[in-house]
Amino acid sequence: MSKEYNDKMVSLFTLLEEYKYLMVNTRCEAMRAYFKGRFEENCRRVEELLQQQHMKESYRHRGNFVSKGMMDFMSRQVREFTIEELTKYNGRRGMPAYVAVDGIVYDLSNVSSWGGGTHFGLVAGENLSAEYMSCHGVMDILAKLSRVGTIRG
Fold it and tell me: Are residues 71 and 91 in the same domain?
């Protein structure tokens, strides 16, 4: 593997990480669509480089093993949920506990106060924007949670 190839891969993965972050964190649908397009374009560039190097199965990035399956996993991580889809993630029967606040879907599965998918009468699997803002009013608490996607529409 050449240094040039490695540098290109590191650069592309850095861009993928940035676009993924921006897709999840932007509130503007047009910007989310733009970042999603850039993310997908860079995924294609990575795939092209892998094909050129005949290393489609695996390669090294920042010292970690990354496979084509990992690339697929990364591209699925930023997900758009409908409100109906979100209701499935209620923290019951082995499902993770997700809630939406201000268009962003957060994973509360590992938050002890959300055990069983409930918290002070609130239920996971719902858009809780109004409830969150009336109780907390600031986004600091959400910054500590894992973002798993956005609400479509």
Answer: no
